[in-house]
Amino acid sequence: MVVTATRAPAAPGRAMKVLLFTGLGALFFSYYWDDNFDPASLQGARVLLTGASAGVGEELAYHYARLGSHLVLTAHTEALLQKVVGNCRKLGAPKVFYIAADMASPEVPERVVQFALDKLGGLDYLVLNHLGATPAGSRSRSVQATRWLMQVNFLSYVQLTSLALPSLTDSQGSLVVVSSLLAKFALDGFFGSLRRELDVQDVNVAITMCVLGLWDRASPAEGVRGVTRAKAAPGPKAALAVIRGGATRAPGVFYPWRFRLLCLLRGWLPHPRAWFIRQELNVTAAAAA
Question: By CB count within 10 A, which of 5, 6, 134, 279 is most buried?
Fold first, then answer.
């Protein structure tokens, strides 16, 4: 009698792992190698940049200055803005202006956009980078703190976008939204709807959503219950990734690249997604209860 050995079929889990790693590899290569960035395209570009006084916003200003863009910078603290403006001029920015502004005031976005239009004659890029944490002395769950967060981290984004959109439409420009992972989930609704509306109307304005991970202690992550650690993305490299994405009109930028996976998991697998996010935030067991 001849005994024929049969090979057991591959376990479904093994096939899923192969598919997962293949997908991750494809995402990795597409992110780092599909790059048609032309630095010369930013020479003379008219840029309004919010949150420009420190961190990634400051590094964005310096990159744009080196590339020869015309800049209007805004942030809350005038002294810090003046320092950044001086550095931008040294780096070669042809034109650079600043306007100190607090996005917690509903009337401020109109003043900022009008200032930029007056100084630059139009806009090619609106770069939104001014997410903020609850002001010191405010209880994180109070009505006052909630209003502040809504105005600074959402309503001001809507106002600035609406006010700048006619000029961006004329120039066929780009809207670049810089956010943390948590903020992206909150902003996706508005900017996703806007992107679909622009597509329907055949308006050639690009929207680039940039996820730079979790910011440092002076960030919205500070107000999240149970967060014990929040890593900041390296400023110069993260800023360059944002500029490349905006210039190439990419729909999304993820730095570090693993945040692309977390965003994909959002719709597919809500429970693993929540686990990954909690690992990134290092949420305490007490807060999870």
Answer: 134
